[in-house]
Amino acid sequence: MSGTIKITLAVIAALLVFGGIAIVGLTSQQNATNGGSSANAHPDQNAIKENDVAATITYTGKGFEPNNSTIGVNSYIRVRNRSVRLLKFMSDPYNQNSDEPELNQSELKPGDSVKIYVSQKGTWGYHNALDPSETGQLIVR
Hints:
This protein has one helix at residues 3-33, and strands spanning 53-59, 64-65, 68-71, 75-81, 89-91, 113-118, 122-128, 131-140. It is an alpha/beta fold. Strand 7 (122-128) and strand 8 (131-140) form a beta hairpin.
């Protein structure tokens, strides 16, 4: 084998080794930052156990019960529709729904429920977008 080929192969091998080390290092750094998992990786609704839910907010058709809840950061809440009306659970402010986008949900039919992962600390108002007079507040510590 000629000297040029040996040098080229050595450079390629070195790049592969150092590139692999860099990728492993970045992945470890991301896992440490995100608590060991990627920020958007959440189990499907059926995989979330009952004791993983920090609070349940029930929509009655006349508002939310309770209308004020406190949970820890990186927790799940459950929103239940126990009314005969549709519910569109959304973050405040009305028509912008921008304060805490993790809360924004599609319409929930009567009898349906959804579990929502909340990863941002703060005090978040929410409402039923189909009747904005129905409101509540979620405090995430």
